[in-house]
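Hi all, long-time lurker, first post. I run a small reading group and we've been trying to get comfortable going from sequence to structure in the token notation. Rather than ask abstract questions, I figured I'd post a concrete chain and ask someone more experienced to write out its structure so we can walk through it together at our next meeting. Sequence below, copied exactly:
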Amino acid sequence: MAIKSGDFVLIDYLLKVKDTGEVFDVTMENQAKENNAYNPEQVYEPRLVVVGQGWTIKGIEEALEGMEEGSEKEFEIPPDKAFGERDPTKVRIVPARDFSRQGVTPKVGARVEFGDQLATIRSVGSGRVTIDMNHPLSGKTIAAKLQVRKVLSEQTEKIRELIHRRVRNVPKEKFLISVLGNVVTIEMPEETFVLEDIQFAKKGLAKEISKYFPEFTSVQFIETHTLKPVKPTAQTETANVTEQGTGGSTEKA
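-- Answer (accepted) --
Happy to help. Here is the structure in token form:
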């Protein structure tokens, strides 16, 4: 069945800058190694996309529509459907003291936060810093290789992948998902209890479930803390034996 807008799809891809051949994003470990882009700290696995929701660049979303599970495609993505055309007005010269006030030492090529945006430092000198607030890949044509691994159909399967998108460092199989009427319940594994930003992840997940599954009226997150029995000490065992031994002598005839 052809993929359409709104479908939940697991995809693999390799993206490179057409002019230079530089790979800047890849989900497949073998492809990363073949293209000298392997990062041992990265988890290589298919990514979830809800088609038409802006989760990836426009060129990939448009390419997905009409594809089928198991299909592959190689194509080029023009700048206007990738990371946008370069905008000269986003290149600015600012005083170096604006960075020193924040405790930042400006260095050419560094990505810094300026105002509410990320910027690349292009040059530093004479108390001035040239910053570029264009995306680093703006104006670039992208060469893409796309593979559709799976089109999700089951409700709980979709929710499980939404969870995995936000909590990647815990195996998705450890989350127990159940549906009763208009309530979805998610049992959280112990590994998540102390994760940084787990509350933020749960709040975001609840919003996504509300958006993509309007039939649900509430989401319950359950944390079960297993209490292990206390191992009796030698002193406790002796006391129990004493109590049992003296118990008979107090009985009345």
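A couple of things your group might point at:
Helices lie at 29-34, 58-64, 97-100, 155-166, 198-212, 234-247.
The two ends are 86 Å apart (CA to CA).
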